[in-house]
Design brief:
- The structure is a homodimer.
- By secondary structure, chain A is an alpha+beta fold.
- Helices cover 34% and strands 22% of the residues of chain A.
- In chain A, helix 6 runs antiparallel to helix 11 and helix 11 (288-301) runs antiparallel to helix 12.
- At the A-B interface, strand 7, helix 5, strand 9, helix 6 and helix 8 of A face strand 7, helix 5, strand 9, helix 6 and helix 8 of B.
Chain lengths: 409, 409
């Protein structure tokens, strides 16, 4: 990085390459800085509920190491076997259990970061409480490689959960399933995960479900964890709520099998037509049913097969429009539908990205969500830490409003 | 702020004025910007577990509003009736229940902030998940008025806890009490709060304890919350752990009375000699016994009555050296003892401030904890958001390394 800084060469940091927004993809000949050889586990401290690992350690390895030490690392973004913890921090990756536990950033105590100058700096540390200095580690979380290169991470962990008990409710309509989610949140139930899968998706993935799926149903998945008696009691209470919401059937499958099945939804839906334009908006949880209904209308208006699922408790939905990847006109239509979805999310008080990040793909959308004042504050920070604009240019923040285009850099 | 920016006049934001580090005190004729009239509750959304309140709303009012709506706002810094939520965010205030729930910043979704220019900007928002843009709200958390003026806060809440059950263990020595805390953490028990009070403090405050205190004992307080059966079971397990750690007696007083008593420790200790130099260091939780022992040695070496308590589960200790406030030579000796405590904290891998902030009082200590590279990164951010250095100058970050002294601004 020091050499690139001296020579004015732009770089793109790349972890496991599992991102869905193109954040780790070089666009105009940037140098890729791969983190894949930074794989060392520097320290595991079970007595402090902490570990320090290098950026290229996979998420699955972090979770396994925690479990082997009687601990629990809650974040569970997709593709955990491939994605790197450094990339998870850089994108503030989410996943189903972010409902109770928050996204990856909640679990970061400290970061080792290479700044644009090539200087290596520790941000944050290993303390559970520390208010000396500004919280720069939190600023690097979710910055998608635009402020510095994360090379190691000190993670806060929890003691292992004794039990993690899922429950699935099947509903005759998408709206009924969404209302059940909103009502469960309003009621004050606290599952660890709270997911929605629409009827269209269930028709495709139902056969692989580890149990019996009634035909033509949407699904709500929840997970209750903690001590076994507490998880059993909380799940029973939730079950009663779903019955009131007229769930047609309830099932309590085994956790590991269920979440593996859940993790397979996106690839299965991809195979239907060979490609999909896959989005990741967030809305307030009480607007969930409205959001899903209008996403389906947008799909119909564009004559695109439409599939919706997501981390509904957090209001985070993944609308997917299927395309034939060889038909470029279909992709154009699907992108136009995605633009309507962004408008919808913003109209409902939501976000253009709940967890996938802005990356390259949404760089032109970010200005629709942020005011000129917000953009200016963001760019002031970006320029302070990357004065030459060499760190992942064009990603996350879009174009520098003080320059005609980031290419002018 | 726009006028001050135009005229080059420095300002000091001031909330409830309960801070312990002098962060809200003008030092060289700055204009005080009081937030006390920003007292409006803008929105309470029980169905989203959220509220938006202006900066001058007291912490106690936030907690009460949450409770009235079936919700729970976990942070419980001292002086909740006086301190303002804006100040709590600006200092990232802690408290006993930060052990399980983290400090105030964990509960911030969005902020309304006035920047140095006078421009009002929304940072973050009201969504539980949103990765559009850099996380500037998190950067403002704990910035102690040096990056912007917080005027309103959108808080994330939780459903009300059904039960909150305390337990107190009494130990024959400070070391035994500290070891019990470290062991309980290593064992994986998860209380909501985990506090230590040394023998010297207990001798002073024991009479007001809502129960019977055996003579000459140190105390460990813990709190278990959640559903009533879960809290009862977890407390019983912890109780068994304390017995193994040879607690001399165990007590299960009523929660509200216990925490009111706990909140009174600091004022009671103040009255013994009329004044105290009160510190707030953090150390790794497995160094707790060593830290307390050496703090006591430092007190003896300086011939100062020494009292130690704190949020031990988080490694956050409050060493207090008693002084006669009219004897300026005693204050000098106590400050010299405090400097030794900072050195000790840093030697143990800790922090010069766990929760009170840097403010004005510790501005000369911050450089002992942060490397020159860390300082430079912090100052790059400060200069980006406050180019004239008018926001709470000299606080939090100490002196600008690019200037001889902040006064030169």
């Amino acid at each position: 990085l020091a050499a690139c800084d001296r020579l004015g060469v732009a770089i793109v940091p790349r972890g496991g390459g599992t991102g869905l927004a193109g954040g780790a993809v070089p666009i105009h000949g940037e140098v890729i800085v791969s983190l894949e050889r930074l794989r060392r586990v520097r320290e595991v401290c079970p007595e402090r509920w902490q570990m320090t690992v290098e950026a290229g350690v996979t998420t699955e390895h972090v979770k396994r190491l925690a479990a082997e030490n009687g601990l629990y690392f809650p974040p569970d973004p997709g593709a955990a076997e491939q994605s790197h913890i450094g990339g998870n921090v850089a994108t503030n990756a989410g996943g189903p259990h972010a409902f109770k536990y928050g996204p990856t950033g909640e679990w970061v105590l400290g970061l080792e970061v290479v700044l644009a100058s090539g200087c290596v700096v520790e941000l944050g540390g290993s303390l559970r409480k520390d208010v000396a200095g500004l919280r720069l580690a939190d600023l690097l979380v979710g910055s998608e490689g635009t402020l510095g290169l994360i090379t190691a991470v000190t993670l806060r962990l929890l003691p292992a959960r004794e039990a993690s008990l899922p429950i699935v409710g099947f509903f005759a309509s998408d709206a009924a399933a969404c209302h059940a989610v909103s009502s469960a949140v309003a009621y004050g139930t606290e599952p660890a995960a709270l997911e929605f899968i629409d009827r269209a998706v269930m028709a495709e993935v139902g056969a692989a479900y580890p149990g019996r799926v009634p035909a033509g149903m949407a699904a709500v998945l929840a997970d209750f964890d903690g001590s076994r008696p507490a998880a059993i009691a909380a799940r029973a209470e939730f079950s009663a709520l779903l019955e009131e919401a007229s769930a047609v059937a309830l099932d309590e499958p085994a956790g590991a099998v269920l979440w593996r099945w859940r993790d397979g939804i996106s690839p299965v839906v991809s195979t239907i037509r060979g490609g999909k334009v896959s989005e990741d908006v967030a809305v307030p949880v009480d607007r969930l049913a409205e959001a899903v209904d209008r996403i389906r209308q947008i799909g119909s208006q564009h004559a695109l097969p439409t599939y919706v699922w997501g981390h509904a408790g957090n209001g985070n939905l993944h609308p997917n429009f299927l395309v034939d990847p060889r038909a470029s006109e279909e992709i154009v239509v699907a992108e136009s539908a995605a633009a309507c979805v962004f408008s919808l999310a913003l109209e409902l008080g939501g976000s253009i990205s709940g967890e996938h990040g802005v990356g390259w793909l949404k760089r032109t959308q970010i200005d629709r969500q942020l005011s000129p004042e917000q953009r200016e504050a963001q760019w002031a920070i970006k320029r302070a830490l990357d004065p030459q604009g060499l760190l992942n240019p064009g990603k996350k923040l879009g174009d520098d409003p003080q320059r005609t285009s980031w290419l002018a850099a």
